[in-house]
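Q: I'm writing up a methods section and want to include an example of the input and output format. Could you take the sequence below and give the corresponding predicted structure tokens, formatted cleanly so I can copy it straight into the document?
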Amino acid sequence: MRSLLITLSSLALLAACASTPEPKAEMKPAVKAEAKAEEPKKVPQCYSGDAGRFFNVGEKAIVSGVEVNCVATADGKNGQWMGVKHGK
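A: Here is the clean output for your methods example:
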């Protein structure tokens, strides 16, 4: 009895997935273009566990008792903590 119920359930699921229409090809690029226009640009950030928050590139913080600066990585996609250089 249980195997009959499982078989019927899987057949119903298969039929439901097979009957879902595929979106038209010409509609897909328009939807993606709208989604890209709405996305805000990601700003590189560094996370501080001491403060419990993210800092934007250029901000200074004290992490584990050391003064550090959040700088962008070479690719510009992320941020990393670097020690602050003090003038002589």
